[in-house]
Amino acid sequence: MAGEIRKPWVPIIATLFLAAVFIAAGVLKIPHPDALYASIRQFRLVNSFWALVGAYVFPWAEFWAGVGLCFGRSRRTAALVICALMVLFIAVVLQAWARGLDIHCGCFGSSDDLSPDNYPALLFRDVGLLLLGVFLAFKKRD
What we know:
Layout: H1 9-29, H2 33-42, H3 48-68, H4 75-98, H5 119-138
Helix pairs in contact: 1-3, 1-5, 2-3, 3-4, 4-5
């Protein structure tokens, strides 16, 4: 297109940022499945078995999706996995907020408070990550 300014660094920065966020989230949780299990149970959505499965699966899914963003052939698939995870996380946070739960999300392996005052900021962050994932999943390849 005439007059279009190409900014090839935008997708590169978006990719590196999203990859770093998801790799960090996974790495911080992988050694502590018991803490993530407790966080998942606080949402009161699944039984003990599924909370345990999630405590072991989610950190690795986050880690490998972040790594996958860094490689050409798996970039779109990794971005779609990140989008799916973010939609799930947003839905879980919205239901916790609607139910007035005061819990720790365990998003980065820490004790992130989800008090009613923190829900909007957490949702803003999660929607931003989702939008980055959508951008990377559906951007045209050069």
